[in-house]
Amino acid sequence: MAAPNPILLLNQVTKSFGDTVALHPTDLAIEKGEFIALMGPSGCGKTTTLRLIAGMDYASAGQLLMWGADDITATPPWERDMPMVWQSYALFPFLSVRENVEFGLRQKRRLLSPERRKRALEWLDRLGIADLAERSIHQLSGGQRQRVAIARALALHPEILLLDEPLSALDANLRLHMQSELKRLHSELGITFLYVTHNQSEAFAMADRVVILSDGRVQQIGAPKEVHRAPANRFVARFVGANTILDGRMTGAGTIETPVGTFGIARGTPPPAHAAASLLVPADRVTLSTEATGASNEVAAEVLTEEFTGSFVTVMLRLADGTEMKVQKQQSEIDGLDLRPGARLFAGWPGEVGYVLPGEAC
Amino acid sequence: MPDTITTSRRRPQIDGFAAFWAAPALIWNGLFFLAPLGFLVGMTFWVVRNYRLTPDFVLSNWERMFTRGFFWESFLYTVQIGAVTAMVASLLAFPVAYFLAFRARPSARRLAIFLLITPFFTSYLVRVYAWMVILAQEGVVNAVLGGIGIAAVSMLNTSFATVIGYLTLCLPLVILIQFFALSNVDRDLVGASHNLGCGPVRTVLTVVIPSARIGLILAAAFAFILSFGDYVSPVFLGGSSPPTMSILIVDQTKSGNNWPRAAVVAVVMIATLVTVLFSALALAYGRGRARA
Hints:
The complex is a heterodimer of chains A (362) and B (292).
Chain A: E1 8-17, E2 20-30, E3 35-39, H1 46-54, E4 61-66, E5 70-71, E6 84-85, H2 97-107, H3 113-126, H4 142-154, E7 160-164, H5 172-189, E8 192-197, H6 200-206, E9 209-214, E10 217-222, H7 224-229, H8 234-240, E11 243-250, E12 256-258, E13 261-263, E14 276-282, E15 287-289, E16 298-309, E17 312-319, E18 324-330, E19 344-348, E20 355-358
Parallel strand pairs in A: 3-8, 3-9, 6-7, 7-8
Antiparallel strand pairs in A: 1-2, 1-4, 4-5, 9-10, 11-12, 11-14, 12-13, 14-20, 15-19, 16-17, 16-19, 17-18
Helix pairs in contact in A: 2-3, 2-4, 3-4
Chain B: H1 2-10, H2 16-43, E1 47-49, E2 52-54, H3 60-66, H4 69-103, H5 106-117, H6 124-135, H7 140-147, H8 159-183, H9 187-195, H10 200-211, H11 213-228, H12 232-236, H13 245-254, H14 259-286
Antiparallel strand pairs in B: 1-2
Helix pairs in contact in B: 3-14, 4-8, 4-11, 6-8, 8-11, 9-10, 11-14, 13-14
């Protein structure tokens, strides 16, 4: 299925600044045409990784290989072929929109003026801003600048496009719109997108695979659904966010005993008997009821807060031992329930969703 | 309601607070700059009778100066040597300013800024005297050249020495202005330039210089302005020959007490500087963008 050699391979790539390790030895194979999102909280190493790939910093150890053979570890950025879309857009204010798009065509592709102009206008047209070609950068809105930055990078017809938090400066509506536009461009062009973000919904909405980083280490690499349903560890489970973590201990019978009850495990690799473990309950699979149903995966809870986010309602519950449980439902599913703070009800989940994480000291 | 707010905001109002604080500077400039300037212009139409300055309204001073070859020679020489100084100072300063802004560690940068200000601690005249010692026929440079068997070179009383003096005056300032201009260049633009295929040298030419254009032009304008009006360097290092405009002013007042003709020279100098400064500002700010 995949090409024999990945378009870009990170082999034990490491970056340290003095005594501080920004990126611990990291392996990552990026296949041609993939949309990969690097994500994590600030300082997790995602931007460092992108800078190493773009050549703005050089790896302290390890190798960057293109197509499995071409070692670009020490290649200066201007000789790499990976245009980038910057968070700040980094458009040249002393050039017009068209000249910005022509910049790389002139400096990197060495195209002559008529050819440059033609291609720049094509890409501006493709991004829907052909009418702005002769404007100065100062005259553009944030969303328009974003499009110019994307056109400038894609006009080079690269095999890999780097994007560094490109949507973080846009307002929510525009961000959603650009998300689908980027996704569309990716599938039309068939090139590799490497996308850095701290925004989980952005990454999950667009990427084929996400790489979750924390403290300069890769925590998990996988398809969004995989990371969402089967987080590799506690950090990922928390980062992904739509879960409740119930800490406890394995029993002899393969169930997990927590302060709020003993529950069955359907997924994940259970730790040995009597070892610490945690049960993960996905927020969207919890059902709420006013009466106990007597099901085995059920706990008594008290409503803390109720929050509307579009068509979704997020309800925070407090369980008997103080653990907070997150529940996400469609408005229609909970219409009849009393969800005022302090209301008491029961939260249950189907046995097949219980996922076990190895326990960690906390 | 919103309409009244916008209109009241847009209406130009005299801000009492700002006027209060601006007043001393405005009064000072009015009394000691604008008034004397008017007087200077007026004096160009006066005459000197029996070595005495007499109010009048004649054009003979202007006529006399503008029809003399020595005046235009001096004018061209002063503009030329000022332009050369501005260019040489800008070229010499740029690598230093670039290094300080982009490469130096913060501690080295602070030290360098401090060192660039220290020349202003000592009088410019003293520094020019030092250059006389260095450049004289029996001076330091020729002693060294003689030591390795090279015949003495006449350096004092040349345009070269004058430019050296001008550079002493303006180079530290040009480096500082360029440094602040380069410090404000967005690092992401440099990164984007590298990312789009420009090596370090081409990045300087296509991105760094256009980005810092305003500061670089102002620095060169400062070098021109300082050297165009300078009197010390052309007298002590240049040997008054050919005379600069500043020397011409002194000549006119000393020989024959001809204040009106000196005023003509001074007014031409001020007009030149105003023209140069406005052109520089137009070049720096006027065109919203330059071609790369």
